[in-house]
Amino acid sequence: MDNAEKKRLYYTLFFPILFCLFIILVYLFEQAMGWDFHKAGIFPHELKTLPNVFTMPFIHSDLSHLLNNIISFFVLSSCLYYFYSQIANKILLLSVVFSGLILWVIGRESWHIGASGVIFAISFFLFFSGLLRKHIPLIAISFVVVFLYGNNVWHLFPWSKIDPVSWEGHLAGGITGVLLAVIYRRQGPQKPVKEWEDDDENEEDEAEYQDNDPELNEENLSEN
Asked: What is the pTM of this model?
């Protein structure tokens, strides 16, 4: 592995690991102190909880909730930082902000906590972004995401009248991911342009230029 690839790998892992470590530290601190951080989550339609879009992803109800989210987040965010390194920071930040804001608008009146919204945003971004860019490696990542997390689509909607899972957070994340994939489709990695296509375009442009240039046309006629 050369130095460039090592740097890329370090960059790929740095922010996902940092994010996951902070989530774990917050949970351990909450448990050690015997505190309850659920009010750092979002309560839809209450203006005072709107800034909590930045704290909600770090709050989890129990160990199972924590482990499920940090594993999913690490896998998906690592893919994001590896394949979309140029725009990964923006996508992550906007995933946090927009998924939280949409949840604040559409959510039921209950406390919503956890990183699920961000996870759904990243997974939907990876899937739709690969399809929109029509680039084989990115499309492959889209199908890997479907294979690993395709069943997540069933968590976008409520399955009972009193659903303890924040399906609204999942839906908000899914909407965010699709929007970001569309908005940033022209930024980051793109499908390579084949050289023969460029050559053909250049030849067509040159031929058109010659046809439109009377001096060149006269020279061609006199030579013939």
From this structure: 0.81
